[in-house]
Write a structure and sequence with these properties.
single chain, about 375 residues, alpha+beta, D-Maltodextrin-Binding Protein, domain 2, 2 domains, 9-stranded mixed sheet, 8 helices
Length: about 375
């Protein structure tokens, strides 16, 4: 078999053995221990970094994408189904704003959650016409593909482009894999291995970002989420030599740092036994003065956001002023938490942090 170079973080070798012997590590709960002034839900990608930020911006209460079936964000407020993923977080925020007086949280069977969500975590930018929501960037992530560390799956694959679709035989690119034009590869012993492209669960910002990056719609992609069981940034979904799945590089780093992160904002090591691939010969991870960091020049990168009601950016209530102080401007409390942002694997974005120029309409479907 081929000898592979493995860049893993912290005590990954021991963790991988533990995962294979005993199964996945039990999730750590990082929901707020008390009610907070500003409550957020949504993206799995940014849940951990926002929990880390909340250790220094104490008005923030950020609820993980997974955990108990229901959450309660305010004292005396309703319990409602936990939003999992960027899109569901944005739907919950839109329901919480409830400007029409008739909008309810559909994933809780129509529960009225007016005033229960102050911000939504999103790993993708705006996609609905309108200006009622403001997408406030606070960090940079990058995304690549993850494969089994025991597999001979190629470790450097080009993105591909629609202009290559007519080439025969189809080039070995990520676009061609996800549209079904390339379905196998040969391992080091010349065995034919069937490729199984995976995507995270419906509502995942990483899912929509990855397919959009490849220039594909849901209908054009042959990828599967295995009946909604592929949770984003959980490497245990990779079970076969031909499996691959998009994976946040920042999440990969944060999970590798899990032993050194603040006790009040733990991260679950859930990578399993995976490796990240290069894209176009670009490394997903670099060493900077001996510190593992995200390669901010990676060709597939994205801003990540906290999304708020546009109307609250000019509000004067105590909660509105706290929201503005937390999120708005490059000197905001979240943007000032650069040490925590980098500790959780993300790149800081300088003057872009806290910008309020990106707008969207409500997410209702």
């Amino acid at each position: 078999m081929l000898t592979k170079t493995k860049l893993r973080l912290g005590v990954v070798a021991a963790t991988a053995v533990a995962v294979m012997a005993f199964g996945a590590v039990a999730p750590a709960s990082a929901d707020p221990g008390s009610f907070k002034l500003l409550n957020g839900v949504g993206s799995d990608t940014t849940q951990d970094v926002m929990n880390g930020v909340a250790t220094v911006v104490t008005n923030i209460g950020s609820y993980d994408a997974l955990g108990s079936a229901q959450i309660q964000t305010t004292s005396g407020g309703p319990s409602f189904n936990r939003p999992n993923g960027s899109s569901n977080g944005l739907r919950a925020l839109s329901s919480s704003i409830n400007n029409t007086g008739t909008r309810t949280w559909p994933l809780s069977g129509g529960v009225n959650i007016t005033g229960q969500v102050d911000f939504a975590r999103s790993s993708s930018g705006p996609s609905v016409a309108g200006s009622e929501l403001t997408f406030i960037p606070f960090a940079r992530d990058a995304v690549t593909y993850a494969v089994s560390a025991a597999s001979d799956f190629p470790r450097d694959v080009a993105l591909g482009a629609a202009s290559q679709d007519a080439i025969s035989p189809a080039p070995f690119t990520l676009r061609n894999i996800y549209r079904g034009a390339v379905t196998t590869f040969a391992d080091s012993e010349f065995n034919t291995v069937t490729i199984r492209p995976l995507v995270p669960q419906s509502g995942s910002g990483t899912r929509s970002f990855w397919l959009s990056t490849l220039g594909l719609t849901e209908a054009q992609s042959i990828a599967t989420d295995l009946g909604g069981t592929v949770q984003e940034h959980n490497g245990t979904a990779i079970t076969g030599a031909g499996d691959l799945v998009p994976f946040s590089i920042a999440q990969y780093i944060a999970q590798g740092n899990h032993n050194s992160l603040p006790s009040g904002a733990p991260v679950t090591e859930r990578r399993g036994n995976i490796e990240l691939g290069k894209i176009g010969n670009a490394k997903p991870i670099i060493l900077n003065a001996g510190v593992v960091e995200l390669n901010t020049s990676f060709p597939v990168s994205r801003l990540v956001y906290n999304v708020v009601s546009t109307a609250r950016l000019t509000g004067t209530s105590t909660a509105d002023l706290a929201l503005q102080a937390a999120f708005v401007g490059s000197t905001s409390q979240v943007c000032a938490a650069g040490a925590q942002i980098k500790q959780y694997g993300f790149g800081t974005i300088g003057a872009t942090c806290g910008s309020t120029t990106s707008k969207s309409g409500y997410y209702t479907s």
